[in-house]
Amino acid sequence: MDRSALQNALTERFATLPTQLRAVARWVLDHPADVALLTTREQAKRAGLSPATFTRLAQRMGLPGYDALRAAYAASLRQRPDGFVNRATELLERHGDEGDGALAQDMFAALAEHIRALREPESIARLERAATMLADARSVFCFGLRSAFPAVYMLDYIRAMIGAGSVLCDGAGGRGVDALRRIGPGDVLFVASVSPYTRLTVEAAVYARDKGAAIVALTDSLHSPLAALADETVLVRTETPSFFHTMTPAFAVVECLAALMTAKQGKPALDAIAASEAHLDVFSTYETAHRTSRRRK
C-alpha cells in the first residue's frame, strides 16, 4: 500500500477508530514529513503516545507494523517530482491544503532528522577520516558552486583563521578553476555538490585526481559522481518538503570538520587564531561595547 492509499484509508476510517488509534491517525495525516523521516519512538514522543499504539494502527490498516507505514511515506518523499518547477508546484498545492504552520513544522522536522543522522556511527567515522585528511594536507583547495559554494567558503575561511594552508577556488569571470593549476600530490581537494550535480564541479574533481591530489567529497549519495572520485565521502541528506534542497546539513558538516581540524592542529591553531583576532582588531572589524561607548560620548 502506497502513501496515497494509506492516507485515503486513514481518512475514510478515521471516525470509526478507537480514541488512541484516532490520535495516531491524526498525527500521520498532519505530519507526513515526520512520518517519513523520524523514528517511531521519536514520533510517539512528539505525539505524546506510546510506540505500541503506532504499531496497532499500522496493523489495523493491514500492515505488519509501523515501519511498513513509515517506508511508504519515505518512498513517497524520495519519489517527488524532478525539477524545481515541478516540486514548487507540489509545494504550492500542499500549502493550499495544509497552510503555513504544517509546512513550517515539516521543514524543521526534516532538518532536525537530517542533523540527527550525522550522529550515526558510520557518519561520525566518515567525518573523522575526512578531518584527518584535511588536517594532514599540505594545502586544501575548496571547490563548490551554486548552493554548495557557501559551505566550501566557510571551510576555507576557518582554515585561514587557524593558519592551515587553504585555497578558495573562486573568482570573477569564471576563473575559479584556475586555482587548481597549483594542486598536486600532498594536497586535498575539498569538493561539494548535491543533486542536481554541477558539471564543472565534477570536472574539477577529475582534474584534481589526475594531478595526484586526494579528494574529500561532501555530497548526498554514494551514487553521486563525486563519490566515485573521492578518497573519502561525507554524506548529507538534502530532501525537504520545500522545492529546494537543504544545505543545512552541509554547513553542520563543515562546522564539525573545522572543530576537528582545529583540535588536531593544537597549539599552532591557537597561535594562528590569536594572530587573526589581532589583525581584525587593527581594522576595527567587529563592533564592540568599548567602541559603542566611545561614539556615545
Keywords:
single chain; 297 residues; alpha/beta; Arc Repressor Mutant, subunit A; Rossmann fold; 2 domains; five-stranded parallel sheet; 60% helix; 8% strand; Homeodomain-like_sf
Fold and architecture overview:
The chain has helices at about 5-15, 20-30, 30-35, 40-45, 50-60, 65-80, 85-115, 120-135, 150-160, 200-210, 250-265, 265-280, 290-295, and strands at about 140-145, 165-170, 190, 215-220, 230-235. The chain has 2 domains: about 1-80, Orthogonal Bundle (Arc Repressor Mutant, subunit A); about 115-265, Glucose-6-phosphate isomerase like protein, domain 1 (Rossmann fold, 3-Layer(aba) Sandwich). A 5-stranded parallel beta sheet has the order 2-1-3-4-5, with helices on both faces. The protein has 13 helices and 5 strands. It is of the alpha/beta class and about 300 residues long. Helix 2 (about 20-30) packs across helix 5 (about 50-60).
Beta-strand content bin = 5-15%
Averaged pLDDT: 85
- What series of H and E elements makes up the topology? HHHHHHHHEHEEHEEHHH
Count of separate structural domains: 2
Secondary structural class: alpha/beta
Q: Superfamily at the CATH H level of the largest domain? A: Glucose-6-phosphate isomerase like protein, domain 1
